[in-house]
Amino acid sequence: MKLYITETIRDKDNLVLIGTTETDFFTFLNSKSERDFVRNRIENEKNITVINQAGRTIFILVLKEEKDHYFQILEEARKAAFTLYSNLKEFDIEKLIIKNAGVSSGQVLAFAEGLSLSNYKFLKYFTKKEEKTYTVKELGIVSDDITSTDIDKLNALIYGVCFSRNLVNEPLSYLNAEMLSEEVTKAGLETGFSVEVFNKKKIESLRMGGLLAVNKGSIDPPTFTILEWKPEKSVNEKPYVLVGKGVVYDTGGLSLKPTHDSMDYMKCDMGGAAAVAGAFSAISKSQLPVWIIGLIPATDNRPDGNAYVPGDVVEMYDGTTVEVLNTDAEGRMILADALSYAKQYDPELVIDLATLTGAAHAAIGKYGIVGMGNVSKELMETLKTSGENTYERVAEFPFWDEFADMLKSDIADLKNIGGKVGGAITAGKFLEKFTDYPYIHLDIAGPAYNKTEDNYRGKGGSGVGVRLLFDFFYQLTR
Questions:
Q1: 173 pLDDT exceeds 70?
Q2: Which residues, 6 or more positions from 41, have their beta carbon under 8 angstroms from its beta carbon?
Q3: 191: helix, coil or strand?
Q4: CB-based contacts of 341: which residues, under 8 Å, 6+ apart?
Q5: Which of 275, 219, 222 is nearest to 473 (CA)?
Q6: Measured between alpha carbons, how far is 452 from 384 in angstroms, rounded to an integer?
Q7: What is the CA angle 14-19-23, rounded to 5?
Q8: Any idea what the Cα angle at residue 248 is, between residues 276 and 281, rounded to 5°?
Q9: E-strand spans in 307-393?
């Protein structure tokens, strides 16, 4: 979709008018009957009204006035865009102008964001794409207080989210670890960040035992991908490091998952890697002045004859020994190597994103991200505010050391699972053992993949994490 600023509205342009009261729309209505019709719809709390004029269609959208509950108001604008999108399909409209008729610039941008994300389609594997292809091709915005910079920023963000969704929606038959690295490399060339890929031989030379252990059951080699965006005038002297779990498919290994409603969508287990790659694409495309490094350990997890087994002891990249009691707790094994590797950068902050635990999903479902960490309250609040702003909300869990006690092993430094309680937290505490810097762990297991359509977040890969990270780093650069 082409999203742009325009100052001109032609007589034939299809319009979306966004306002809060009936009088906001009267300038664009041709007759008393149209005004009465709109007034009656609004009085009956109908938030969308369609007016057919000669040669064009006008969609009238009523939003709440922006006073209290600012974050909720923005989310309502995004959801309203999704609702409108369903109407647009009936009229087969390809070009649309959004006119701000009396709301805030934030609401207009949120509406454009919601419409753009609702417009996403993953059609690569359909043989008759034209039967499923309806999209809005052009979206213009008329608003006095929205700049071309605002639009460039939004276009970059939409690009990053859609790239992330594409990665998650790709099946393992295409997107193995090597192809994930290749797709990230292509994105780097297109948007401007640099990429270096370690192959299996290099990973073996580094003795990344966690990544190699998980990969033992696979016929495909692992990769370790390093991304970097370092503009000349970055606001930070030490890098922020993003680590993304890249398990391109997870069977559970020898601790095999049941097939119904668990393994069938496990292509999404690289949602953390997709979020990191999407965030890098958006940040570099919009030229944010922030120095960031990304680390993506990638492999699939299969129960082949040489697969690692419960009871194995694995020596990790930093020399820590881990007793493996569940091969389906593989994400933390590969992330641990990446978190240890991050120490060499002397980072300002490290954030990992991972579809890590069923416990996080069970705790809050698709409605947010489970977060925890050892950073200052102020920094965590900044991230949580970005979560509210994008409605990729972060529910902060306690990070108490008592949960780390549950990871003590009788035969090694650690075991890779805790007890029956606090599974999301013990996973985070396991990962913390491999850090010596300010650290935030984000478990995106709940919202990373939608089995049914979830308004503008779509069906399939949601791209969760991209908008959160983009807003977070944008706030840090202001």
A1: yes
A2: 49, 60
A3: helix
A4: 206, 208, 224, 295, 317
A5: 275
A6: 26
A7: 100
A8: 25
A9: 313-315, 321-323, 349-354, 369-373
**Residue 68 pLDDT class (50, 70, 90 cuts):** low
CB 235 within 8 A of CB 477: yes
Q: To which H or E segment does residue 59 belong?
A: strand 56-62
Which residues are known to be catalytic?
257, 332
Q: Which domains does the chain have, with CATH numbers?
A: 2-143 (3.40.220.10), 155-477 (3.40.630.10)
Residues 6+ apart with CB under 8 A from 95: 13, 14, 136, 137, 138, 139, 140
Look up the pTM and report it. 0.97
Return the pLDDT at 238: 98
Output b/e per residue, 461-470; b: 16+ Cβ within 10 A.
bbbbbbbbbb
Residue 357: predicted pLDDT: 97
pLDDT top residue among 462 and 22? 462
Q: What backbone phi and psi angles, to 5 degrees, belong to 268?
A: -85, 0
Whole-angstrom Cα distance, residue 236 to residue 134?
A: 43
Q: Which residues pair with 407 in a beta bridge?
A: none
Q: What is the percent of the chain where pLDDT is above 70?
A: 100
The reported pLDDT for the residue numbered 67 is 67
Positive or negative, the CA dihedral 87, 89, 92, 95 is: positive
Is 467 in a helix, a strand, or coil? helix
Q: Are 371 and 465 a contacting pair, CB within 8 Å? A: no
Kindly report which listed range (60-69, 164-173, 190-199, 431-440) carries the lowest average pLDDT score: 60-69
Q: Collect all residues with Cβ–Cβ distance below 8 Å to 3 and sequence separation of at least 6.
A: 112, 116, 139, 141, 151, 154, 155, 158
Question: Quick one: tokens of 452?
Answer: 């049914």
What is the helix (H) or strand (E) element at residue 195, kind and residue range? strand 194-198
Distance CA 45, CA 51 (A): 17
CA proximity to 109, closest of 477, 364, 474, 476: 474
Q: What single letter denotes the amino acid at residue 376?
A: S
| 439-443 vs 194-198, strand pairing mode | unpaired
Q: Two tokens at 268? A: 């999404």
3 state SS of 183: helix
Instruction: Give the length of the chain.
Output: 478
